[in-house]
Amino acid sequence: MIVVSSPLHALHEPPREVSGGREVPAFEIGARATSILAAVEADGGFQLQAPDGFGLEPILAVHDPGLVRYLETAWDEWLAGGTGGDSIVPDTIRHPGLRPMGDAGPEPESPCGRVGYWTFDTATPIVAGTWQAARSAVDVAITTAARVLAGAPVAYGLCRPPGHHAARDLFGGYCYMNNAAITAHWSTQRTGATVAILDVDVHHGNGSQAIFWERPDVLYVSLHSDPRGMYPYYVGYADEVGGGAGMGRNLNLPLPQGTDDAAYLAALEVGLARIADFGASMLVVSLGLDTYALDPIGGFGLTASGYTAIGRRVALLGLPTVILQEGGYHVGDLGRNVVAWLRGFSPAA
Ligand code: Q9C
Ligand code: ZN
């Protein structure tokens, strides 16, 4: 199996995040990618490749140009503003209740005002290298799809930072640009493909859902921890089924805290049946390993052998498959769990 990765991810190293009312060391750190690469290299059966550069066009096809411009300029502007600090975190967030007019209003000029205009949480700091790292993650993701469109049955992209929480005009949830959504859209434009996104991260991929909400040609299916008790809290419920031309092309399967391998595999059958029904020509997997039993923020009970079984079951769909890294925060076991999943999908690597 081809594995695409870039060393540029390491330029994004947030020192901390605000979580549960405290500053805690960031969960989404470079050591995650190191763990995955080490396990992939130790396996020996994977073919490591560097990404190609795709520029801004595929990004701007999915994201608001204002968000992209913000991410590109935020750090320099923050430094110039003299507010100090080693990372950008909002103190005020553009809540829709602030504006009875119902629109977003103008983007402020103050650096503090700008960050809260484009993000929705306090867990996703911008540091000096965030823009370059986030761009490299997009290039990794598109390159992975390009290999599959060129005939590889499956390929894995080690995206970091992750992407599935980023919406058209919002970053958050450790995500700055939506690698999977950009890649799915790029694939539809390149080939006329119909794409199914299977999101197995423990968190609902609100960004991917929102981006394809009205799209008939991209099906979004997500298995995740019930948002009543889990980030992103306000979205990811079972009654969210898509809108307009995308009605019926969104499937949320919220699962209880503590979900184990067996219960997960049962729910996966429901998601895979919908994908088979849809008749996708390509599959994008948003691969989060924060469903792991020992994950520090996940709350599910999945195991390495569960991941192998899940990967094997997804492979049985028989679709050309682009697997993109999302979450997973047990750094010590993350690489082993990724390889367990990929080996399940492709036992011969
Ligand atoms: N107490 C991804 O897995 N909130 N993002 C964490 C922990 C943010 C997760 C709170 C979670 C974002 C890609
Ligand atoms: Zn997650």
Concise summary:
The protein has 349 residues and is of the alpha/beta class.
* Gyration radius, in Å: 19 Å
SS field, number of helical segments: 10
**Quaternary status of these chains?**
single chain
Q: How many distinct beta strands? A: 10
The structure class reads: alpha/beta
**How large is the share of residues in beta strands?**
5-15%
Shape verdict: globular
Helicity, in percent? Answer: 25-40%
> Which ranges are low-confidence, i.e. pLDDT below 50, for 5 or more consecutive residues?
none
Order of helices and strands: EEEHEHHHHEHEHEEHEHEH
- What is the spatial order of strands in the main beta sheet? 4-1-5-10-9-6-7-8
The ligands bound in this entry are: N-{4-[(3-aminopropyl)amino]butyl}acetamide, zinc ion
What is the straight-line distance between the termini? 5 Å
Largest sheet geometry? 8 strands, parallel
